[in-house]
User: What shape does this take?
Amino acid sequence: FVDDKPVGEFNYYYIDGKLKAVTVYSSSGDSAATKSYHKNGKPMAEGTYFRQKKTGKWLYYSDVDGALIAEENYDNGLLDGPHTTFYPASGKPAEIIEYKQGRREGMLLKLFPDGSTMTEGTYVNDSLDGDFTLYYPDGKIQLKGAYDHGMHTGEWKYFDEDGNQLDDDEFRYEILENDTLEFDFPIKTKKD
Assistant: This one.
């Protein structure tokens, strides 16, 4: 310690004596690189702190085989940038969500194990907003609609695996004057 700030390497252990984490503090004690471990000794997470808040890229690993399962980006302790989860078996992305200052803001993309798109949408101010599409594994559309501030809105169409439209629902939401009550339900349903 220098001026009551940690400096240099610190090792942390589980109660059974196994290594839990290694943290290396800068000479000023303001920043630290850390790597933590699962009880079985496999890596758990690694990243950097600045003034005790996560910063930059953080990586997370499976306790089974040590495979990368998630990657996050931080700014001043808040998620900021892409948050990606991975299929452990292949290491390919399973889901990508954009964050800005701790809130979901931007792209939502879910992928099938082969890398083709499963779901795509957009977050605005931590709520789904705008076009939303769900796909079958062969790339055909399964569902298509839109969100407005996290609520279903407008026409939502449902398709079978051959591309034939099954249903469509019309949604709207209302915020009553002098009240915060919201409705999110189909106002009209058509069926073939």
Observations:
- The CA atoms of residues 18 and 39 lie 7 Å apart.
- Confidence is low (pLDDT under 50) at residues 174-192.
- The domain at 51-191 is CATH 3.90.930 (Outer Surface Protein A; domain 3).
- The chain has one domain: 51-191.
